[in-house]
Specification:
14% strand; Rossmann fold; five-stranded parallel sheet; 12 helices
Length: 322
């Protein structure tokens, strides 16, 4: 096993100081820019008639998803396939975890099959960090509890970069259930590292005010205040399963106070709209906003494949022995 999770995985010329992608808290601006630059190159590959390159031929990527996923799971699988890696996939319902096997033993058994990279989604915060300490495989975090979702944040900033000149002074507002959002936390880390200003907005019951000091952001419970001077607004999915907790009175009232509508687009003519998905139409975003030309949500999905190709390329062991 490598001595440290920060041991470079590719070569001495790479600016990446990390062996795994666990979260973005220790990635600096140069590393983030290098990942984005690499992803931009792979984005061009996706526009070719033949979208596959032999870069990771001989490398095996295992996806262990113990929570439901559509975009992340599919795009990691597509990314690995586009790079010619071999892929295997395992879900909680189809694994021996249902029989009582621990996560550690599951990962070690998968690794014993000579897997190079493990992509992990798990409900427990810190699960990817745990695997990085007890296996030799490269670990990529595909979402752990409410802690982190680094590839989502990276594909988000990649999408933003297509529409802006610089992150310095960029005003981004993230709106919704901040407390339970791993997407919000990872986006704050990426955006503030790159020089953007971040505002977090949502109901008081979903807005951890301690983040204002801890993460150098502004917080507000007023949507109009969050959108004033805002360049990009990212709405987060309201987790319907948390409605039983009484975090907001009703879906209708949430949309009235925090849903982005065509009126907001009229009042802010340069505002771009993002959403990590899945979208609850008529809740976080009005129907006409989801389908508006200034909603760049589907670009996020496309860029997710390119970004995950870049992460695999930069961190997966390179097989050059044929």
């Amino acid at each position: 096993m490598a001595d440290s999770p920060d041991t470079p995985a590719v070569d001495a010329d790479s600016p990446l100081r990390h062996r795994h992608l666990l979260d973005l808290s220790t990635y600096d601006a140069d590393e983030l820019r290098h990942i984005l630059d690499t992803a931009q190159e792979f984005r061009a590959v996706l526009d070719r008639p033949i979208r596959q390159v032999p870069t990771l031929q001989g490398t095996t990527v295992a996806s262990l998803f113990f929570e439901p996923s559509t975009r992340t799971k599919l795009s990691f699988g597509l990314a690995a396939g586009r790079l010619s890696a071999e892929t295997v996939s395992l879900s909680k319902s189809g694994s021996s975890v249902k029989k009582g096997e621990t996560l550690k033993d599951t990962a070690r058994n998968v690794e014993a099959m000579k897997v190079d990279v493990v992509v992990l989604r798990h409900s427990s915060p810190g699960a990817p960090h745990f695997l990085a300490r007890c296996t030799d495989s490269v670990i990529l975090n595909a979402g752990d509890g409410a802690h982190a979702h680094p590839t989502q944040a990276l594909l988000d900033v990649l999408t933003m970069r297509e529409h802006i000149d610089t992150f310095d002074g960029l005003n981004v507002s993230i709106i919704g259930d901040i407390t339970h959002s791993r997407v919000a936390r990872s986006n704050v880390q990426a955006l503030t590292t790159l020089g953007a200003n971040v505002t977090l907005c949502g109901p008081a019951t979903m807005l951890p005010v301690e983040m204002e000091r801890a993460m150098d952001v502004r917080t507000t419970t007023d949507l109009d205040a969050a959108l004033e001077g805002c360049d990009i607004a990212m709405a987060l999915r309201i987790q319907m399963e948390r409605q039983d907790e009484g975090l907001f009175p009703s879906i209708r009232e949430y949309h009235m106070k925090f849903g982005i509508t065509p009126d907001h687009l009229r009042r802010h003519p340069n505002l771009l709209i993002m959403h990590p998905g899945p979208v609850n139409r008529g809740v976080e975003l009005a129907n006409d906003v989801v389908d508006h030309e200034r909603a760049i949500i589907l670009s996020q999905v496309t860029n997710g494949v390119a970004l995950r190709m870049a992460i695999l390329y930069l961190l997966a062991p390179q097989r050059t022995d044929g």
